[in-house]
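A.,

Following up on our hallway conversation. Structure tokens first:
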């Protein structure tokens, strides 16, 4: 029987899967958008959304819980300083998965983009002033 055996194992050992999930979650937090396979995106989305839920309220226990999951100070800083306040009034659904049409080269795996629903706007590049001749 498979009672209480939920979740995709992604063809990896437990330690490899935990490390991969942690690394991909750090990448999503730092870059706010990653391209990966569809199966990995579906496995990581709930993990990231739970971290964002904790980051909405900046308390010491929440910081410690997020750091225990991510083990990266920069990710925790960004999560609590930028991403948490951005989603403070949102009840859930912080990430989305967009399927890409082209499959991955090599094994023909389905690719997807995992990103936050609201992203940080890119800074506008200041136009270079042309020198007067």
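Then the amino acids I'd put at each of the 133 positions:
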């Amino acid at each position: 029987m498979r009672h209480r055996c939920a979740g995709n194992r992604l063809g990896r050992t437990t330690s490899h899967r935990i490390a991969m999930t942690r690394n991909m979650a750090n990448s999503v937090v730092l870059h706010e958008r990653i391209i990966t396979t569809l199966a990995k995106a579906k496995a990581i989305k709930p993990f990231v959304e739970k971290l964002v839920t904790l980051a909405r309220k900046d308390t010491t226990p929440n910081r410690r819980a997020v750091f225990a999951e991510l083990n990266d100070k920069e990710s925790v800083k960004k999560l609590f300083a930028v991403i948490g306040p951005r989603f403070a009034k949102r009840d859930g659904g912080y990430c989305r998965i967009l399927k890409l049409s082209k499959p991955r080269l090599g094994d023909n795996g389905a690719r997807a983009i995992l990103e936050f629903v609201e992203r940080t706007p890119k800074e506008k590049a200041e136009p270079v002033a042309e020198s007067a001749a």
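The longest helix spans residues 14-31. Curious whether your intuition agrees with the design.

B.
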